[in-house]
Write a structure and sequence with these properties.
It is a single chain. The radius of gyration is 22 Å and the shape is globular. By secondary structure, the chain is an alpha/beta fold. Strand 12, helix 14 and strand 13 form a beta-alpha-beta unit. 49% of the residues lie in helices and 13% in strands. The protein folds into two domains: 166 residues, 3-Layer(aba) Sandwich (Rossmann fold); 156 residues, Rossmann fold (3-Layer(aba) Sandwich).
Length: 390
């Protein structure tokens, strides 16, 4: 009898625990592209120990598992609760499919809030779906502006900010931008950058390893990521960038470590361009391998918003192959510099870019900089969520 009573007691405790978990408010989180999986890692861990229950949706902007799923496993983030499979025939049908899929998820899950990250099409799809479902929307990385309306990401940022109820900014520059645009300050909270949270947590592991395919030391290594249409979709500028990589290698005797983005690979094939012999393309790499590459590089050339920050997080100078950046703080502290890809249409521009990549520069330390929350962004986001919707 006593053992039966013990079993009944245990069963009741389990039921009560399950019911208690299900009474927690639900946060539906939208991810869909490589940077968002990384950003979600820090917040997911913080949500797990909070009074919230997360429902993670992979919106499918990047369908290749090498661009998404590996990050979840490596960063110990649970697999998504739902995964969408939108059309990949073009930006408009993909955006429409993501909106429909996310709307269905919101109708089934009935979340108390929806969280989106950054500035991808998945971000905008989540924002529009939440707005139509009348669910409070939280935008992480709100207020960033490059000033370049030719970038799809700029449109996504502006529209998502206009639809958001709680706007989590990375610092004073983004906050001031939103106030200038007329956003009510009561909807704003400065939290820092969740990518810094993750980078700081992974820093020692990144330093202690070399990424797959890394050239034998003591070679000089230039790390490269290029994928934006402004360069990748233009055969002349893309060839100019490749010529600069080859010239850098000739002058330094070094190697170029270039994990070629699937989009850029397709452009190379379409234009009949070949990677120079100095380029090592390791294929898709995980988060820790990328951080390790940035940590051990002499310099970084990128057109990515995330990589330009991560280079600084890992102590390496970067040249940004764009004429604007949303991360103006990096320019002010001279952690990175801009190079206009329009200059790559002739040999003078190729020579100029090579010269910028050859410069030996040090970057200021992240610790003590006062920028991007210094590792506390995820904690602040969950605290802001509690205050805003509590």
């Amino acid at each position: 009898m006593s053992s039966l009573l013990a079993c009944i007691t245990l069963a009741l405790q389990t039921i009560n625990s399950f019911e208690s978990m299900n009474t927690k408010p639900v946060l539906l989180t939208v991810t869909g592209a490589r940077p968002q999986f990384i950003k979600s890692a820090a917040v997911t861990r913080e949500v797990a120990s909070s009074g919230w229950r997360q429902w993670l949706v992979h919106a499918g902007q990047h369908m290749d598992d090498g661009m998404g799923q590996d990050f979840l496993a490596e960063l110990k983030v649970p697999m998504p609760d739902a995964r969408l499979h939108p059309s990949q025939s073009g930006r408009t049908p993909r955006l429409a499919d993501m909106m429909v899929g996310l709307a269905k998820q919101m109708d089934e899950v009935r979340p108390n809030a929806v969280m989106v990250y950054g500035d991808t099409d998945a971000t905008l799809a989540g924002a529009l779906a939440a707005h139509h479902a009348q669910v409070p929307l939280i935008h992480v990385e709100a207020g960033l502006r490059s000033g370049d309306r030719a970038m799809p990401e700029e449109h996504n940022r502006i529209l998502t900010d206009q639809l958001s109820d709680l706007l989590c900014t990375t610092g004073p520059t983004a906050t001031a931008q939103l106030i200038q645009e007329g956003v009510d300050p009561s909807r704003l909270t400065e939290v820092g950058d969740v990518m810094l949270d993750v980078a700081l947590a992974a820093g020692n592991l990144a330093k202690a390893r070399l990424p797959k395919g890394w050239p034998e030391p003591p070679s000089s290594v230039l790390v490269v990521t290029l994928h934006r249409p402004a360069t990748a979709d233009n055969p002349v500028k893309l060839k100019g960038a490749l010529d600069a990589l080859e010239l850098w290698a000739e002058r330094t005797g070094g190697w170029v470590y270039f994990p070629v983005h699937p989009r850029t690979k397709a452009c190379l094939e379409r234009f009949g361009l070949q990677l120079p012999n100095c380029v090592v393309d390791p294929g898709p790499i995980g988060y820790l391998d990328m951080q390790s590459a940035l940590c051990h590089a002499d310099c970084v050339l990128t057109d990515s918003g995330g990589v330009q920050k991560e280079a600084w997080f890992q102590g390496t100078p970067a040249v940004i192959l764009r004429n604007t950046t949303e991360w103006t703080e990096l320019l002010k502290i001279e952690a990175s510099e801009l190079f206009d890809p329009e200059l790559l249409v002739d040999s003078n521009g190729v020579q100029a870019l090579t010269g910028r990549l050859q410069l030996k520069r040090s970057v200021p330390s992240v610790v003590g900089s006062g920028l991007f929350g210094e590792g506390l962004a995820a904690q602040r986001i969950v605290a802001a969520l509690d205050r805003f919707l509590g």
